[in-house]
Amino acid sequence: MSEFVPGSAPASALSGSMRDFRVPKGTDLLARVGEFFDWQNGRRRNGLWPFSRATVTGPKSTVMAQDDSGRAMTGINFASQDYLSLSNHPDIRATALETVEKYGVHSAGSAALVGNSSLTLALERKIADFVDMEHVTLYPTGWAAGYGVIRGLVRSADHIVMDALAHTCLQEGANAATRNIYMHRHLDVEHCRHWLRAIRAKDTENGIMIVTEGLFSMDSDTPDLAALQAAAHEFNATLMVDVAHDLGALGPGGRGHIATAGMLGKVDLVMGSFSKTFASNGGFVASRSRAVKEYLKFYSPTTTFSNALSQVQAAVIHKAFEIVDSAEGETLRGELMANILDLRTKLAAEKLDYYGDPSAIVAVKMGSESLARLVSRNLHDAGLLANLVEYPAVGKGAARFRMQVMAKHTSENVSHAVEIMSRCRNEAMRELEAMQRPRLQEVA
Ligand SMILES: Cc1ncc(COP(=O)(O)O)c(C=O)c1O
């Protein structure tokens, strides 16, 4: 039973967005953030703030969790990023324990100084071989890798041509590197080429980085990577592809969409994260030259001036790559894809629409933020964890629930999750209609 009375949510908790508080006004830097907190509390008090939740049992298919008011729930977990379910794999756990016994828990320095270990060096080699590139630079997180590769290589006179939906780490890195940023329409290679042409018509002296993703994490779609690399060659630019969501989980041998496009080893720069499939924090940049690796190590601030991955992280990620690259990895990818297709089929049967192509990200369309927030409240009570994504992370009126599939979800988990999603959406639609009815009458 919900503790919230249907129809009781105030309009202020169903409207507004985090964008409203991005530029707070006033001289007191600390006091002026209070407005955001008041708005957030309005949502929190009404069970409409489904962010900052915590799992109690770890990110398994079924979990105990709590929201940030401490309200507990037990249910099915489609909100964790652990696509091949490796975070609880027995070999990964054993590797972590053995490594802690042997090396302790801390790298105790930056890779530019003495933070590397024999394990991080072995990991660099492993990843380079896996993605068919020569060299790899490791970062403490995927975010740091995305930000750092751009900030490390692009200077203020250079240019960046970037997909409009590129991840925040890429956008922040671009903003920190140069003011010459050109956004091209999502996946639109012709628009990208338009900017490249315009830049090269005026500037033949400076660099251009084209920035895109192997699999976009809100829309689950993929650009034409071969066409982008060809454009990079044609206009003397450098292509950088973020493979955070597809590497390991999709494509031939788990090599992601770069391999599906026949571009393995042929993209200028590949950047990835370990946090979706490889059971750990951390990220990497793969390049074809030692000079790029060395330059990033000393000029990419998020690795140069940050502590290196610990031995236990390096060993866990190494083991995850071994599993991903094995027959078992192939089986896990098969199980993951079967779950993805099962989920998409069952959602469609309930007339729940979703974005994009089959991947571990199944983003279920909701539309209005008010409806999505009411659904999120119902999901908590009904026992389904799925991540609400709303403006400004996605467009206004394009709110969605990002369901993230794992290899070890069962068919029952999928059926139950779809049944809950459908029921909660129907209840929320009825509630919203009832809330809007008197207002419509007033207008009449
Ligand atoms: C496309 C993309 N790049 C980079 C990152 C950052 O990765 P990490 O979680 O390892 O910092 C994410 C994670 O949200 C992502 O979705």
Describe this structure in words.
With 444 residues, the chain is of the alpha/beta class. It has 15 helices and 14 strands. It has helices at 11-14, 34-45, 90-103, 118-130, 142-153, 168-177, 189-202, 225-234, 256-260, 290-299, 301-304, 311-324, 327-349, 369-382, 411-443, and strands at residues 54-55, 62-66, 72-77, 135-139, 159-163, 181-184, 208-213, 238-242, 269-273, 283-287, 361-367, 384-385, 387-389, 399-404. Strands 4-10-9-8-7-5-6 form a seven-stranded mixed sheet, sandwiched between helices. The chain has a four-stranded mixed sheet with strand order 1-2-3-12. Strands 11-14-13 form a three-stranded antiparallel sheet. The chain is globular and about 65 Å long. The model has no long low-confidence stretch (mean pLDDT 96). Bound molecules: pyridoxal-5'-phosphate (PLP).
Indicate the percent of residues in helices.
Answer: 40-55%
Structural class: alpha/beta
C-alpha termini separation: 35 Å
CATH topology of the largest domain: Aspartate Aminotransferase, domain 2
Quickly count the helices.
15
The fraction of residues assigned to DSSP E strands is 5-15%
The small-molecule ligands in this entry are: pyridoxal-5'-phosphate
Order of helices and strands: HHEEEHHEHEHEHEHEHEEHHHHEHEEEH
The assigned CATH architecture of the largest domain is: 3-Layer(aba) Sandwich
Globular, elongated, flat, extended or rod-shaped: what is the shape? globular
| CATH homologous superfamily caption of the largest domain | Type I PLP-dependent aspartate aminotransferase-like (Major domain)
Contiguous low-pLDDT stretches (5 residues minimum) are none
Biggest sheet features: 7 strands, mixed
